[in-house]
Design goal:
The longest helix has 17 residues. By secondary structure, the chain is mainly alpha-helical. It folds into 2 domains: 55 residues, no CATH class; 57 residues, no CATH class. The chain starts with 6 loop residues before the first helix and ends in a 10-residue tail after the last helix. It is built from 4 helices and 2 strands. Helix 2 crosses helix 3. The chain is 42% helix and 8% strand. The chain is globular, with a radius of gyration of 16 Å.
Length: 118
């Protein structure tokens, strides 16, 4: 978990994610319009294509449902002692989410996704 969001963090994420892909794999990432997602300072690895979503369209962004699930079930209405406690709570919430087999797929499965042709 990175303590900030920005171009440098996005670059680190892209580089690390690209390393997880097999030689014959290519990933397409749908991104919202956060400034660091499309910064000209990014060097996008050759095995990744970034696709920006239309502005102001959270209903098209499946990860919005993941964040909502995490907040509703694990993170809301809590008072945390400091930065370390916040990081621990976020990591624990994420680990609980990924331990639920099929949960991310169910949260991110919009009916329109299979109909999209690249």
């Amino acid at each position: 978990m990175l303590p900030y969001a920005g171009t440098a963090a996005m670059q680190a994420f892209l580089n690390r994610f690209a390393e997880t892909l097999a030689q014959d794999e290519h990933a397409v990432m749908m991104l919202d319009r956060a400034g660091w997602h499309g910064s000209n300072a990014l060097t996008v690895p050759a095995n990744i294509t970034l696709v920006p979503l239309p502005a102001y369209s959270p209903e098209l962004n499946p990860v919005e449902r993941v964040w909502l699930y995490l907040k509703e079930r694990f993170l809301s209405h809590r008072l945390l002692a400091g930065y370390g406690a916040i990081v621990d709570a976020a990591c624990n919430a994420w680990n609980r989410l990924v331990a639920e087999a099929g949960r991310i797929k169910s949260l991110c499965s919009y009916s329109w996704i299979p109909q999209v042709n690249a």
